[in-house]
TrEMBL record:
The keyword DNA damage does not apply. This is Metallophosphoesterase. The keyword Metal-binding applies. Keywords: Hydrolase, Metal-binding. Gene3D superfamilies: 3.60.21.10. It holds the Pfam family Metallophos. GO terms for biological process: lipid A biosynthetic process. Residues 48-202 form the Calcineurin-like phosphoesterase domain. Transmembrane segments: none annotated. GO terms for cellular component: membrane. It comes from the Bacteria. GO terms for molecular function: metal ion binding; UDP-2,3-diacylglucosamine hydrolase activity. Coiled coil: none annotated.
Length: 274
């Protein structure tokens, strides 16, 4: 085989790989999952949450996003909704798409702060998104309630998280929304039944054998997927469930490998007694 033929083959393989990685980065993969708890109020059995995080530079297609969605009760947005250099009209468009699905509650991520937190907050406010900045609210349904808390993103890595851990009574089913799962580091208890986070992108570029290329040690352990944590320090078995999403967008390069983008449809279920 001539050198030109080798080069042509290499170029074809490279183009195919780039195409595959671009498809992983720009798809609309919805993951449907159930969250089962005996602490959930009965009237919230079947309550559906759309969870999306780390949108970054992407522009949401309402048709693609909602093609398999129905009966969503609320939308939770886990930060990095935009990033520096992205037109704020794109953020406005994205949030307008989400608020047409259901009431939207959000926290900010590190890239939102870099983009200009005041401007981001203004867009959220004008589009009807509720920003949970170290804030707790209640979600009511048929005279019962669950509690939702959002954790404030620190200004930089040199600034620690505040001591906020949500304001919920012991008997409340409690959801905590936080951008960066490093919030759980060193905590012996999380005081939540469900913790939703993003930030890691699941590693974004995950090589065979070598694994994720750009994750610090903490995130090697807490990369993406489901984890169990102690809700209270006195518990024998962990009962808090944490979901770390791979996220919907990308950081630095618009490509993914063995780590497709995702968003989540979570259905809360009351555990049935035997």
């Amino acid at each position: 085989m001539s050198v030109l033929m080798w080069l042509a083959c290499a170029a074809a393989v490279g183009a195919g790989a780039i195409g595959w990685m671009s498809a992983e980065a720009h798809g609309y993969r919805m993951r449907e999952q159930e969250v089962i708890s005996d602490r959930l109020p009965q009237s919230f059995d079947g309550y559906r949450i759309l969870f999306i995080t780390d949108i970054h530079r992407r522009k949401l297609s309402e048709a693609k996003l909602t093609s398999h969605l129905s009966g969503v009760d609320c939308v939770l947005v886990g930060g990095d909704i935009t990033e520096k250099g992205v037109p704020f009209e794109r953020l406005r468009h994205n949030m307008s798409v989400l608020v047409r699905i259901a009431p939207v509650y959000a926290v900010l991520g590190n890239h939102d702060l870099f983009a200009g937190k005041d401007a981001v907050r203004k867009v959220l406010r004008e589009t009807g998104v509720t920003l949970l900045n170290d804030k707790t609210i209640t979600l009511q349904h048929q005279e019962e309630r669950i509690v939702l808390s959002g954790v404030r993103q620190p200004a930089s890595r040199q600034h620690p998280y505040t001591q906020f851990r949500g304001k919920a009574h012991e008997e409340d089913f409690h959801i905590i929304l936080v951008h960066d799962p490093i919030w759980v580091k060193g905590r012996q208890e999380v005081h939540a039944d469900l913790l939703l986070a993003g930030h890691t992108h699941g590693g974004q570029i995950v090589l065979p054998i070598a694994g994720a290329m750009r994750l610090a040690r903490f995130y090697k352990k807490f990369k993406s997927g489901w984890y169990t944590l102690p809700r209270t320090a006195a518990e024998i078995k962990p009962s808090s469930q944490m979901l770390i999403s791979r996220g919907f967008g990308t950081s630095h390069i618009p490509l993914r490998l063995q780590c497709p983008c995702e968003y989540h449809l979570l259905t809360l279920r009351k555990r049935k007694k035997p």
